[in-house]
Amino acid sequence: MKRLAIVGSQWGDEGKGKVVNYFSEKFEWVVRFSGGANAGHTIYYKGKKYVNHLLPSINPGNYSKGFLGAGMVIDLEQLIKELKVMEEDFPGISNRFYIDLEAFIVLPWHKEEDELLESMRREPIGTTKRGIGPAYTDKVSREGIKLYHIFDDKLLKQRLEDIFYLKNNIYSGRLKSNAKDVYNYLLKQREELKNLKVNYESAIDMSKVFRNSTVLFEGAQGVLLDLDFGTYPFVTSAACMAHGVSSVGFSTFELDEVYGVLKAYTTRVGSGPFPTEIKGELGEKIAKLGNEFGATTGRARSVGWLDLPALRYAKIRSGLTGFVITKADILNGFDEIKVCTGYEINGEIKEIPSSSYDFSKAKPVYETLPGWKDTNDVNFLKYMAFIEEKTGVKIHYISYGPKTEEMCSKNDLIMNM
């Protein structure tokens, strides 16, 4: 494969960072094409844990490079923190990262807006308060700052003054940030990035480079949190599906494969519909076994049984051609495993939601399958075969632990049974 996209098949938190990191050794470029610092991707390298929110999940030990695309909104302060952590163990690694000049920047007042807006809602959405929504809002309303603005002092100052004039009127002087402070803040971040020797390139200039090398596209969150097709309004503000590669100048038709990452069960963090949620002691037990706490916020995730209608929906929406299953080991030792095979909606059984609205009305229809002792148990193989049969998507790889190397192909698993 020359071009592979990896996206979340559920509500995010499926273990994409580890999966991307596993595949990255086979690719020259790892490209983040959407999202911001509200997405945490955890990787392990030589026994050490790294939690990155913006950096593409490159393999630190090889030649792979990372590209942050124009579909992202980038918190420069957070990016610098992540680079400095990586620099401690891999001196010079910052020079292996490139940022698209068209990418938008998360500004200090975006985080203030995020908190203000969430506090004013009758029903909070459950944002991470990282400023992602307000940054994307400014992008759409043409009130944002692109990366290239920070290299033109006069233009940057003028734009910040114009934007702040509007925001100060909207929020009646409640913002603590002002244009002068944000200007000086951005100049400081620019200098730090210069010292780290980060590269700046547009996707236009990188087009030939990408098409003459191997590229792994790293998605953020999951299909069910996609702005257009997720469980709106309880979604993120970015594209979470493979079509987001268009922000880096690619078409989905140019992709060789689109792998969807799914847990052997389902989780979601924050508010919004969750048809297969397991309430009470059992849900708490699985959450504890799976260490289901957000890498970005530390918030506890709700846990549910595997949701096949949601996976079928993700398959169609994002053009999934294969699955990578994670955290199957968390369900080791369970006598029985439930799987949602359909939704009852207004008295009708549906295998695939017609729209994201269906998730809020769905009553899950379950089948019960035998559990497994460990992932070498034949019952786990039957579980995967059941998923493949019911979704029409093959499972290609299995993750059975948090470390990058704790993955294998399904073929290898079968051969070793």
Automatic annotation (TrEMBL):
Residues involved in Mg(2+) binding: D13, G40
Top-level taxonomy: Bacteria, Thermotogati, Thermotogota, Thermotogae, Petrotogales
Name this protein carries in UniProt: Adenylosuccinate synthetase
PROSITE patterns: ADENYLOSUCCIN_SYN_1, ADENYLOSUCCIN_SYN_2
SUBUNIT field: Homodimer.
Catalyzed reactions per annotation: IMP + L-aspartate + GTP = N(6)-(1,2-dicarboxyethyl)-AMP + GDP + phosphate + 2 H(+)
List of residues binding GTP: 12-18, 40-42, 301, 327-329, 399-401
GO MF annotation: an example: GTP binding
